[in-house]
Write a structure and sequence with these properties.
Layout: E1 2-6, H1 10-22, E2 26-30, H2 33-42, E3 47-51, H3 59-69, E4 74-78, H4 83-91, E5 96-99, H5 104-117, E6 128-131, E7 134-137, E8 142-145, E9 148-150, H6 154-165, H7 173-181, H8 191-203, E10 212-215, E11 219-222
Parallel strand pairs: 1-2, 1-3, 3-4, 4-5
Antiparallel strand pairs: 6-7, 7-8, 8-9, 10-11
Helix pairs in contact: 2-3, 6-7, 6-8
Length: 226
């Protein structure tokens, strides 16, 4: 699941990015309304977390542009707790409203609820991914293979869901490092190889056929091979 956080409060934006990433989401950040509107209307996201008070263009302006394009779920975040502000946000197309300060656990619950509800604006709004006897539920964050539950860490879940969304495509170590760990790839870092090895031990070692393959000199691919 790919989320866009549009928030100009630096500490909160970084906090949301870190927390959501640790819970298995791929997260992009925009620091103002202009950048947020551009990313929201040009990119493909499963959910937007949108601050109301933004420089450049406020949250209502961003929301209007998003709704002109499609039905991507929008969770509005704001320090304003006036009823009229909440009503206006919902009337103009927001799907939910969360007043700051909020508990991160509540934010996660609302994000999960909106993703279950779904929307037509995102490219990948299915919450179920499958390949052979492998099944992933992106909302409940449960993974099964041959009807057996796999116990994955948050990063292993993010890695597997990314590979499964792009099944059949060879993903380089650089791509995986950027998408899963939000880091520029350093050739001296073996974080990707270690994570792939641990994931393979859970995903493939006890089962056949093998699904996670190494393509020498290029990267990794998740696919069913004859």
């Amino acid at each position: 699941m790919r989320l866009l956080v549009i928030e100009d409060e630096l500490k909160l934006a970084d906090y949301l990015h870190k927390g959501l990433s640790e819970n298995g989401y791929v997260v992009d950040l925009a620091r103002d309304g202009i950048e947020g509107r551009h990313l929201a209307t040009e990119g493909e996201y499963d959910l937007l977390l949108l601050d109301l008070m933004l420089p450049g263009i406020d949250g209502f302006g961003v929301l209007k542009a998003v709704r002109a394009r499609g039905n991507t779920p929008v969770l509005m975040l704001t320090a304003r707790d006036k009823v009229e502000d909440r009503v206006r946000g919902l009337q103009e197309g927001a799907d939910d409203y969360l007043v700051k300060p909020f508990a991160f656990s509540e934010l996660l619950a609302r994000v999960a609820a909106l993703l279950r509800r779904g929307g037509n604006g995102a490219a990948h709004n299915s919450t179920q991914l499958r390949l052979a006897d492998l099944e992933i539920d992106l909302v409940s964050r449960k993974v099964h293979r041959a009807d057996k539950r796999l116990d994955l860490t948050a990063k292993e879940f993010s890695l597997l869901s990314l590979l499964l969304r792009r099944r059949g495509q060879i993903l380089s170590r650089t791509t995986l490092a950027e998408q899963v760990w939000d880091m520029n790839f350093d050739s001296d870092t073996n974080v990707v190889e270690v994570a792939v090895r641990r994931l393979r031990a859970k995903l493939d070692d006890p089962f056949t056929p093998k699904l996670l393959h190494t393509v020498r000199g290029m990267g990794y691919v998740l696919e069913e091979r004859p």
